[in-house]
């Protein structure tokens, strides 16, 4: 298991970003786990501009495979009085693997105060809960899981997840690394395993400073439709207090 902290502290500065090695235990097949690639992109974006306001939104495209030595670079697209738009790319030997646009936005005085977001449907795992860890040779070995035991829809996941080693990393980098840890929701529809790949990920952060207790985040994903090799899924992340911290959507390619 390689902590994200070690990947970032061993990174080498390059123009507009840094170069880092993707360890074998963060791979999923021939490419790096998407949450790690996104976390690297966010780290580059955070270093691009001084005194950025809180991250509020991200649009991520998983363009190609990333493995071995990769380069994470970022440029400012625009910075106004309230919001900053930063583009970040992660590139490997095979070319551009990920492109993200991160939107950082300060709080604005507003007469609108509306909150109809659903609270977490489950309480966090107790200290003596029996959790499981993925295999060491796969990215899931970096996470600890507790599956929901209730009946879910065929194309739905609900799972408590935390990083096994989350010390000394930015909370939002941690959240991006956690956020893609579920299998695609359509995975539950397969009669036999087939290749599957995330294409896009749209993330809205609902609070300027996401935080949780004991590292636990409750992840939910549900696919409403999976037709012609393409699935669209809705995603939510809650903290241990039951507060919603992320709403997201993801487009997924199904090769079979």
How does this model look, in words?
It is a single chain. The protein has 256 residues and is mostly beta strands. 11% of the residues lie in helices and 42% in strands. The chain has one domain (4-106, 122-254): Acyl-CoA thioesterase, double hotdog domain (Porin). The strands form two sheets. A 13-stranded antiparallel sheet has the order 1-2-6-7-8-5-12-15-14-13-11-10-9. A two-stranded antiparallel ribbon has the order 3-4. β1 (12-14) and β2 form a beta hairpin. It is globular and about 50 Å long. The model has no long low-confidence stretch (mean pLDDT 95).
Task: List the main descriptive attributes of the protein structure presented here.
256 residues; mainly beta; Porin; 13-stranded antiparallel sheet; 3 helices; 11% helix
Structural Rg: 18 Å
In whole angstroms, how far apart are the ends? 31 Å
* Coarse morphology: globular
Helix content: 10-25%
Per DSSP, the total helix count is: 3
Strand order of the largest sheet: 1-2-6-7-8-5-12-15-14-13-11-10-9
Secondary-structure-derived class: mainly beta
User: What is the β-strand count?
Assistant: 15
Organism: Sphingomonas qomolangmaensis
InterPro entries: ACOT8-like_C, Acyl-CoA_hotdog, HotDog_dom_sf, TesB_ACOT8-like_N
Protein name: Thioesterase family protein
Domain Acyl-CoA thioesterase-like N-terminal HotDog: 22-105
Lay out the secondary structure.
Layout: H1 4-9, E1 12-14, E2 17-21, E3 27-28, E4 31-32, H2 34-46, E5 55-62, E6 69-79, E7 83-92, E8 95-105, E9 132-133, E10 143-147, E11 156-163, H3 171-179, E12 196-205, E13 217-227, E14 230-238, E15 244-254
Antiparallel strand pairs: 1-2, 2-6, 3-4, 5-8, 5-12, 6-7, 7-8, 9-10, 10-11, 11-13, 12-15, 13-14, 14-15
Helix pairs in contact: 2-3
